[in-house]
Amino acid sequence: MKNQIIAFLKDEDGQTSTEYILLVAVVALIVFKFKDKATTRLGAITDSVFDGADSWVGDLQNQ
């Protein structure tokens, strides 16, 4: 019996659904924790990219 328990604990063949559920839960917690900060930063990045594109297009139209 002891050998079976040791063999079970050493068995690492593939992930189980429990491991996948824990991984999804951790990712979801991280997303919820940093949602506001990520939204703010991504918004700022997007705004700067579109502002740069607008000025570039405006420069091309003025030539």
Characteristic key phrases:
single chain; 63 residues; mainly alpha
**Main beta-sheet annotation:** none
Q: Quote the distance from N terminus to C terminus.
A: 84 Å
Number of helical regions: 3
Number of strands: 0
- What letter string, H or E per element, gives the SSE order? HHH
User: What overall form do the CA principal axes indicate?
Assistant: rod-shaped
Strand content: under 5%
Helix content: over 70%
What is the rounded Rg? 25 Å
Provide the low-confidence segments as ranges: none
Tell me the structural class. mainly alpha
What is the residue-mean pLDDT, rounded to a whole number? Answer: 87
Concise summary:
With 63 residues, the protein is an all-alpha fold.
Any overview of this molecule?
The protein is mainly alpha-helical. It has a domain at 35-63. 86% of the residues lie in helices and 0% in strands. It contains three helices and no strands. It has helices at residues 2-10, 17-33, 35-62. It starts with a helix and ends with a helix.
How do the strands and helices of this protein lay out in sequence?
Blueprint: H1 2-10, H2 17-33, H3 35-62
